[in-house]
Structures
1.
Amino acid sequence: MAGFNKVVHSYAAAMEGLSDNMTIIAGGFGLCGIPEGLIKQIQTMGTKGITIVSNNCGVDGFGLGLLLEKKQIKKMISSYVGENALFEQQLLSGELAVELTPQGTLAEKMRAGGAGIPAFFTATGYGTPVAEGKEVREFNGRPYIMEESITGDFAIVKAWKADRYGNCVYRHTAQNFNPLAATAGKITVVEVEELVEPGQLEPSQIHTPGIYVDRIIVGQFEKRIERKVLSTSL
């Protein structure tokens, strides 16, 4: 079974094959469940012209925000971009292309891409700028727009536990976009908190089966809080 071992022992090996102008699908929601070390490795590699598909672009100086510092991102396909001043600056200056996508549509684009479905119809966005230039069809008297699915050259994902065969479990809300992203990459790399022996994961609890995963690396995580809010009432 040694040939099924997907564990790599360096971030360079984890992101081997990444080159300029590729598309990367990144799991996470805000700073929750993001593959921190893999993002830092992309920054270190200096890869340029990247298209990033992700819920957002991190914050200034952390997460995907690191890739903005060297202007490595050419285009963002995302649903929320409100926590990053550098993102705003590059968008307004024309240095960064942005394709805003409704959040549920973005999730379905990843899921459909991973399932081999090229496009789907959704009512979300009809009658808004989101629908401009897209095919419209009517089902049961209601108009729907066609959205194309998304796949990437790489998918980078963060998991809680995994075995060396690539079976993954996510913890609580860190599940978010990670299992969807994991299915949609030609090469899927998972950064994991804990590596366990095969058989230690309850089969019914596995969120991403190892068939979707190409590489596993055990990471160290800072786990920043995106926005800390403390109640003043007792």
Note: The radius of gyration is 18 Å.
2.
Amino acid sequence: MFDRIRTFIDSLTGAEHPNPIEAGDPRIAIVALCIQVMEADGHADDIERRKVRSMIKEHYTLDDAALDALIAAGEDAESEAIDFFRFTSDIKRHFSEEQRIDLVGMLWEIVYVDGERSEMEDHVIWRIADLLGVSGRDRIMKRQEAAAKSDIVETAEH
């Protein structure tokens, strides 16, 4: 699974990135969206934090110091953002539809890691997917895939 995530994020950025974090680094936008999804239900569980950290660390093969710097940059960017557009507009301009759909799938994996899905998490991912140009059909498909991976039984379509 992590190889798929690594390949996906590498394809989003077009190249492997050095560990230093610089302004405009597309990894920051990805981390910021992950944080926004993680915090959508009003609290970020340790299991969600560990999921985000492990996905980012594994994908970018970062050491702990570089991971901490990237997470901090993503947190700063997320706290300064007034909406999702700041992050999604750049992703939409530079990445293929398939890559954007895969990103939505990754965001659903963050939602389901704690075994629960809230209405606010649904709303945040719906909004991000909409801004990324990901169809409702693809968003729901990725949600169902993430739920199946987490052994969550889906009961309603949102």
Note: Helices lie at 2-13, 26-38, 46-60, 64-80, 85-94, 97-112, 119-132, 136-149.
3.
Amino acid sequence: MQVKELVSFLNQIAPFTYQESYDNSGLLVGDSTAEITGVVVALDCIESVIDEAILHGANVVLTHHPIIFRGLKRITGANYVERTVLKAIKNEINLIAIHTNLDNVHFGVNHIISDKLGLTNVKILNPKAATNYKLAVFAPETHANLIRESMAKAGAGYIGSYDSCSFTSSGEGRFRPDSDAVPFIGKAGELEVVKEVKIEVIVSEHAVSAVLEAMKVTHPYEEIAHDIIGLTNTNEYIGSGMIGQLDQEMEVMEFLNFVKKTFHCGSIRYTNPTKSMVKTIAVCGGAGSFLLKDAIRAKADVFITGDFKYHEFFDAENHLMIADIGHFESEQYTSEWLVAQLNKKFTTFAVRLTSVNTNPINYL
């Protein structure tokens, strides 16, 4: 099993095209053709995690946060980032990050948080637009099923909890091959009229190339008439944050204590409660203050996230209660989830959840 196969799998569960423009997910250090001897999974990539990988004979460290984030102009060991990268290179440890792309997919970081809270009817808090395309292809009726099936296998036709979605309409196709053509149907110089179908499918941005290739391989025509149209529709399954409901209302302080216990918080910073009982909960793993207006608009009772600045707490304006549980605390279960996904998929190498507490913050 090569490193690139692991990266490909990660791209399936959280396509790297969904990472934010400022992010740096993917294979950051290493050799994509290297054989995997073991994987250590952690939230953060620091020196002690590299040491752990070396100790257990693992040559891959998979983390949520990328160790190389703002770019490096030199690697001299002057700080923890440079020392970590140097140690990884010296010991042939491959470093992979799966960051905001995992934040932005439906079953990613925020779904993990929602599951821990027992939320139901969850949905993306701030869905993204323009992440889908529509592919329309014209083909003879005889090959319609084959083309539909091949495109579906390549990733076309996913709409929420449904797959293999498509729409087919019938009509006539007209064409005249010239003397250099090698037509599947018809003769050079003669106008041909053929019963054809138009197959339309939704294709996510990351799957466009694979779907196009699958369509072309199975299509019988020498020249294939097709359209790829960018959609501005909002994609309800891709985006930031998540919102859902508790099964039953909880008294606000009882809920905060439940959150503190569930996420092992050293403390929770929170604004004045606006309700005595809470039910609708918005969440965002990591630093989520940018979603406060979305949480208010969605009429959340509580917004759980991390890294709120002092003045940002005022922005709640008594519309909801902000509960800052900490960056590490909100995302800590991401590593367990990744371990579970890798263990389900791969059996040729060991996957180990780090024993290192990478949280740089202590509480008194």
Note: Residues 131-231 form a domain with the Alpha-Beta Plaits fold (CATH 3.30.70.120).
